[in-house]
Amino acid sequence: MKPKPVIFAAGRLTAVQAGSGPDLLVIHSLLADRTAFDPVLPWLTQRFRVTLLNLPGFHGSACIPAGIEGYADHLAQVFTPQGLSEQTVVVGNGFGGTVAVAMALRHGDKFGKLILSDVAAGFPPEGRKAFEVMAAKVENEGIGSVATISANRVFHEAYLSAHPGAVDERRRVLLGIDPQGFIAACRSLMTADLTPQLGAISKPTRVVCGELDAATPPSLCRLLAEKIPGASYRELPGCGHCPPLEQPEAFIRAIEDFLT
């Protein structure tokens, strides 16, 4: 089934939808786009009406100011009687997952289960510095300038060796992003610190992490699972930052029991 375009937030958020059944919302990573979930989409659409949202600044979604709370409030506008239901399963990867955590804290009554893939509630100083460097590079040199950095954060060394076109593919993805949207997202991650609030999340939560994730290492993902009441954790051996793209079958196995 070919995904069809949909819009939310009075046209300020774009998305595509495919499949039928209960709602499932996918929020992609900073260094990817919604197509990172294409390898698992056939499985998901057999079970759900899947909405693949474009983050602000991506593929027609309007840019918004930096700030994780603002992103959460903006994206929560998809949950309306004319949009997605209060039973929607939310799946977030990377930055999209951090936004999903903020939504769970601020709008948790509007949706159902939560799947967080390679997500941090906040970053240590070295992680914040990486986002600062990327934002400055994009501001000074353009969005394509971070393609190599992006590939090295999304994928691990063994994957890059086996897929020599990965840097060019990251550049293609990045060129679909409004530079100001990318900078705002980086600055949101630089300042986000949701860890102290994680105990207030009451959503059933599954945390998944690639063992070799350099962008959001397992220690940060395990912290989510430890702090969110009742959350469960699955780690994927030999996988990097984007399991649906790199190891789709393993990612499906990691979430299948949680979705039934």
Would you mind describing this structure in some detail?
By secondary structure, the chain is an alpha/beta fold. 40% of the residues lie in helices and 16% in strands. Strands 1-2-4-3-5-6-7-8 form an 8-stranded mixed sheet, sandwiched between helices. The radius of gyration is 17 Å and the shape is globular. The two termini are 22 Å apart.
Outline of the structure:
This protein has about 260 residues and is of the alpha/beta class.
Give descriptors for this structure.
globular; 8 strands; eight-stranded mixed β-sheet; alpha/beta; about 260 residues; single chain
How big is the Rg?
Answer: 17 Å
> Helical percent range?
40-55%
Terminal residue distance = 22 Å
Q: What's the count of strands?
A: 8
Shape: globular
Strand order of the largest sheet: 1-2-4-3-5-6-7-8
**Average residue pLDDT:** 95
The H/E string reads EEEHEHEHEHHHHHEHEHH
Beta-strand content: 15-25%
> Number of helix segments?
11
Low-confidence stretches: none
Supply the helix-strand structural class: alpha/beta
- Largest sheet composition: 8 strands, mixed
What's the SSE blueprint?
Layout: E1 4-8, E2 13-19, E3 23-27, H1 41-45, E4 49-53, H2 68-75, E5 89-93, H3 95-107, E6 114-117, H4 125-141, H5 147-154, H6 157-162, H7 166-174, H8 179-191, E7 205-210, H9 218-227, E8 232-236, H10 243-246, H11 248-259
Parallel strand pairs: 3-4, 3-5, 5-6, 6-7, 7-8
Antiparallel strand pairs: 1-2, 2-4
